């Protein structure tokens, strides 16, 4: 299966996580919803339930639910990494003091944030001091300058 567009991915994950076939405009604007709906129907991830009145809702197929679970994990990982980068860009100096909020769904766990810190470190996106007392977080953290 080809990679999903960002709009389709957000719609799929939202419909799955919130158990809602209707996507609010603060998650995706109406134009993005139309494009996402067409893409997801074409991939058979949602039911094609359009009527004469227009397109239907974001009702997931079994394949759509399975894909949404995988997408949800990826979106949460990437969202945690973005939240850490945004916090550091805003002036935070420690990754353990960040109040990272996901796009939607449950707040990030400490483990998710620690995994995000490791992933960003492995990709040399952030640097800082760690150690046994930092509990998987970085102290004196900063975004790595571009070389």
Describe the structure.
With 147 residues, the protein is mostly helical. It is 45% helix and 6% strand. Helix 1 packs across helix 3. The two termini are 35 Å apart.
Put the structure in a nutshell.
This protein has four helices and two strands; from the N terminus they run H-H-H-H-E-E. It has 147 residues and is mainly alpha-helical. The two termini are 35 Å apart.
Describe the strand arrangement of the main beta sheet, using strand numbers.
1-2
Rg over alpha carbons = 18 Å
Secondary structure tally: strands = 2
Biggest sheet overview = 2 strands, antiparallel
- Number of helices, counting only DSSP H or I runs of 4 residues or more: 4
Helical/strand content category: mainly alpha
Question: Stretches where pLDDT falls below 50 for ≥5 residues?
Answer: none
Shape field? elongated
**Share of helical residues:** 40-55%
- The percentage of residues in β strands lies in 5-15%
Order of helices and strands: HHHHEE
Give the terminus-to-terminus CA distance.
35 Å
Q: Indicate the mean pLDDT.
A: 84
């Amino acid at each position: 299966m080809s990679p999903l567009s960002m709009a389709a991915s957000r719609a799929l994950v939202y419909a799955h996580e919130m158990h809602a076939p209707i996507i609010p405009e603060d998650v995706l604007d109406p134009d993005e919803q139309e494009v996402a709906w067409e893409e997801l129907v074409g991939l058979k991830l949602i039911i094609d339930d359009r009527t004469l009145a227009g397109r239907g809702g974001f009702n997931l197929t079994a394949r759509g639910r399975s894909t949404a679970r995988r997408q949800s994990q990826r979106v949460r990982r990437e969202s945690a990494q973005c939240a850490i980068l945004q916090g550091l860009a805003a002036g935070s100096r420690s990754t353990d003091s960040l109040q990272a909020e996901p796009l939607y769904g449950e707040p990030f766990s400490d483990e998710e944030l620690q995994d995000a810190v490791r992933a960003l470190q492995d990709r040399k996106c952030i640097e800082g001091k760690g150690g046994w007392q930092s509990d998987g977080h970085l102290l004196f953290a900063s975004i790595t300058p571009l070389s």
